[in-house]
Design brief:
The complex is a heterodimer of chains A (120) and B (108). Chain A has 120 residues and is mostly beta strands. Chain A contains no helices and eleven strands. In chain A, strands 2, 4, 5, 6, 9, 10 and 11 form a seven-stranded mixed sheet that branches. In chain A, strands 1-3-8-7 form a four-stranded antiparallel sheet, with no helix packed on it. In chain B, 37% of the residues are buried. Classes of the chains: A mainly beta (120), B mainly beta (108). Chains A and B meet through β4, β5 and β9 of A and β5, β9 and β10 of B.
Chain lengths: 120, 108
């Protein structure tokens, strides 16, 4: 099946630094990628929708200047957490949509392995 | 607004049957997904419903009623490894919105 790879899986950084998380679709072209964050014992919250070659669409309440998303190619989207603070510590998960899905939806959705960010 | 509600926690016994409910109110609807998520891992796909009715896949079945904004995931012959969070998600036009998630604990 299709694979989405996310890197790094774990990152620890100091408060005030920036962290970049990569999301790659390994065997399909992903015109759309989604970024979610998940706090402990909570569900996934959609942060933004990333479309190749255009600006990301952010969900209400998500700071676009803090969470920079770049989708420069059909196989790579990056999320940069700028000037990270302890409250940004979370599990960040990307998902990518392929061009066509067996379920009949416009593109089956595949999830990356997730990246756990800890800001000290 | 978007509301997708599930019970927060459920417990069950190994070998039993458990039903996890999901109710939703969304501005659009293009299908409903169920995912399983073990602690610290990414979600894995379980089922997809776009038409009313029951979809059966091995020990897991999923039901959808679009008129009622309601779905359930049925897990049969529970195993210890089924202890996980179960996430209901609605495909709303062009994005997947997740419910609150249900933590299921299976006891021997």
């Amino acid at each position: 099946g299709a694979v989405v790879s996310q890197h790094p899986s774990r990152v620890i950084c100091k408060s005030g630094t920036s962290v970049k998380i990569e999301c790659r679709s390994l065997d399909f072209q992903a015109t759309t990628m989604f970024w979610y964050r998940q706090f402990p014992k909570q569900s996934l919250m959609l942060m933004a929708t990333s479309n190749e070659g255009s600006k990301a669409t952010y969900e209400q309440g998500v700071e676009k200047d803090k969470f920079l998303i770049n989708h420069a190619s059909l196989t790579l989207s990056t999320l940069t957490v700028t000037s990270a603070h302890p409250e940004d510590s979370s599990f960040y998960i990307c998902s990518a949509r392929s061009g066509g899905g067996e379920q009949g939806v416009t593109g089956e959705l595949f999830f990356g392995e997730g990246s756990r960010l800890t800001v000290l | 607004g978007q509301n997708i509600d599930q019970p927060t926690e459920m417990t069950a016994t190994e070998g039993a049957i458990v039903q996890i409910n999901c109710t939703y109110q969304t501005s659009g609807f293009n299908g409903l997904f169920w995912y399983q998520q073990h602690a610290g891992e990414a979600p894995t796909f379980l089922s997809y419903n776009v038409l009313d009715g029951l979809e059966e896949k091995g020990r897991f079945s999923s039901f959808l009623s679009r008129s009622k904004g309601y779905s359930y995931l049925l897990l049969k012959e529970l195993q210890m490894k089924d202890s996980a969070s179960y996430l209901c998600a609605v495909y709303n036009t062009d994005k997947l919105i997740f419910g609150t998630g249900t933590r299921l604990q299976v006891f021997p």
